[in-house]
Automatic annotation (TrEMBL):
Domain HTH lysR-type, chain residue ranges per copy: 2-59
Protein family (similarity comment): Belongs to the LysR transcriptional regulatory family.
Protein name per its UniProtKB record: LysR family transcriptional regulator
Key words of the record: DNA-binding, Transcription, Transcription regulation
Species lineage: Bacteria, Bacillati, Actinomycetota, Actinomycetes, Pseudonocardiales
InterPro entries xref list: LysR_HTH_N, LysR_subst-bd, WH-like_DNA-bd_sf, WH_DNA-bd_sf
Pfam families: HTH_1 (PF00126), LysR_substrate (PF03466)
Keyword Nucleus: no
PROSITE patterns, alphabetized: HTH_LYSR
Amino acid sequence: MIDPRRLRVLRALADHGTVTAAGQALHLTPSAVSQQLAALEAECGQQLLRRWGRRVSLTPAGELMVVHANAVAAELERAHATLAALDSGVRGMVRLASFASAITMVVAPAIASLRAGSPGVSMQVQDVEGHASIPLLLDGEVDLAITEEYRLSPRTDESRLTRFPLYVEPFDVVLPTTHRLAGSSEVDIDELADDDWIAPKSGNPCRDVLMIVCANPAIRHVSDDFHAITTLVAAGEGVALVPRNAFTAVPGSVAVPLRGEPPLRRVFAAVRRGSAEHPLLKTVLAALLDAAPGHANADRGSPT
């Protein structure tokens, strides 16, 4: 028999790349992770890992077992949701990770709505950058994540998630009010080729958007806080590309739409596949969808 708990260890290794990182995600020691993986190989009768000293990678058999591990995890989530649905009362806490502007626009209004309509349901919110929330969700640290993808970025494999679109917003360029283009109704990104830029840190998808739409931008300052970015723009330190709803006006700054088709940030809620029918998550998801702005996609609320 294959122990499904060991499949979870294999998934963590596939997600995080090293035994040490997998152990940190699972709150296990590296030795315990190695022991669990060795036991799983014995149960499968197949070599699942290639080992070079301290480095490991998945064999074809290991990659196949990760696919099965994902399916098993989804079925376990579905079983948990089905059992929870037998309880006539909906009470409990949902742990949620979201980036700041979505907390302001969607999460806080949803909490207010739940307090009035479903007082037995509460949320515990973590403010994290959008690209950091999905790992927390897959590791079981949160129950629901609000995150983002971009029109210009490829969609990654989401076979382990069920997604609920919330809203779509364009990126605008933020300029100092003293900038030569500050009074324009629209700005062509090519007109800013010689400007200094203030951008998010490497690894933040919003920085990737800038690198796609602007060839070789001269990045002068970096920050993952859009308010800090806007403040630096207002100080005359450069220009920036900011999602429309993340822009907070600072004296000395102005947001101007981009000409043509701007890059888009698509904001969605995600849960682990199989868990969407859990009554607590259904209640919270309904509140989030109701709170989402009216300019959302036509497919808003349709899980994918």
